[in-house]
Design goal:
Length: about 290
């Protein structure tokens, strides 16, 4: 794959230390689009999926987000097959706690034995002895929270994972989990048009916890030329997707966006957002939108 000096680089977004010791460029990549429809099965174009993964690393991405339940197992397997042996600075964040039903339903399973089995599968597919960031995909409300956090803590003690993350939690749930262990990241639904987790964005910034907004592009709705960002995009000459990502990067210093795409062209466009600096006026207009 050609690589020229004019290529964008995720390094243009600053570095954040996950858990205080694991550096990542703040603009990452989410791998959920490297599956079939509905995050089930193989992607339509396997070679393109592999190219997207290679290109992400070439463009300076050092944080790739995935989960055992995508596919299930498909992006994790592709990451392992395509990128292993990994660059030393690449952090792969995966998740456990969901199983997929026959029709693709997302079913929470936070029983410690399931989490142990899930982690074992992720380690195998990713070809790793230890996962840098392991996230509980959902709290399973049928299982005591302390048992789920206890399982994650056990994985860390055994050296199977380095840092613990949570996904789709309330501020109160995060604080309860923090009484039991160190939480390095929170991954919640958040983007310009969906700000219900603003309390967590503030809290994570104050406490140096990474906040990984999922659906940073509102599943593509923020990328359309006629969408809510069209006006500011045409004024700045940036693509709407880049405005959405630059806003996230500038909104809080601990936000780590992981835009997803199955397209090399979209990946380049998204990574170029690391170079975009929105003015105070632009930020205020977007905040008020
Ligand atoms: N923790 C959770 O519960 C949870 C839930 C959902 C997602 N996630 C994570 O969050 C990541 C991001 O979410 P996502 O991928 O579902 O949604 P997203 O990043 O908000 O948007 C992805 C969608 O936007 C399109 N797109 C991306 N870049 C574009 C561009 N520059 N121009 C036009 N269209 C563009 C993609 O299509 P193309 O493929 O055609 O580019 C895709 O349909 C996932 O990959 C996953 O790692 C986590």
């Amino acid at each position: 794959m050609s690589h020229s000096n004019s290529e964008p680089s995720a390094a243009a977004a600053e570095t954040f230390l996950i858990g205080g010791d694991l550096p990542v460029h703040r603009l990452g990549y989410g791998s959920m689009q490297l599956t079939g429809p509905g995050a089930m099965g193989e992607p339509a174009d396997l070679e393109q999926a592999r190219n997207v993964l290679r290109l992400a690393v070439e463009l300076g991405v050092t944080l790739i987000d995935t989960a055992d339940s995508y596919g299930p197992g498909v992006p994790e397997r592709l990451i392992g097959e395509t990128l292993h042996p990994y660059r030393k600075d690449l952090v792969i964040a995966t998740k456990g706690g969901f199983i997929r039903g026959h029709r693709g339903e997302w079913i929470t399973d936070g029983r410690p034995q399931h989490l142990r089995d899930a982690l074992e599968g992720s380690l195998r597919r990713l070809r790793l002895d230890s996962i840098d960031l392991y996230q509980l995909h959902r709290i399973d409300h049928k299982v005591p929270l302390a048992d789920q956090i206890g399982a994650m803590e056990e994985f860390r003690r055994r050296g199977l994972i380095r840092h613990i993350g949570l996904s789709e939690v309330t501020l109160q749930e995060l604080q309860v989990a923090q009484t039991q262990t160190q939480i390095a990241t929170v991954q919640n639904l958040y983007n310009l048009t969906e700000r219900r987790s603003e309390d967590l964005v503030s809290y994570t910034a104050e406490n140096n916890i990474g906040f990984i907004p999922w659906f940073p592009l509102a599943t593509g709705q923020l990328t359309t030329p006629s969408g809510p960002l069209a006006k500011i995009a045409s004024r700045t000459g940036a693509a709407p997707s880049q405005i959405a990502l630059a806003w996230l990067l500038q909104h809080s210093p601990t936000i780590l966006p992981i835009p997803g795409t199955s397209s090399p062209a979209h990946l380049r466009e998204n990574i170029a957002a690391a170079h975009l600096k929105l003015t105070t006026e632009d930020m205020a207009a977007l905040d008020a939108a």
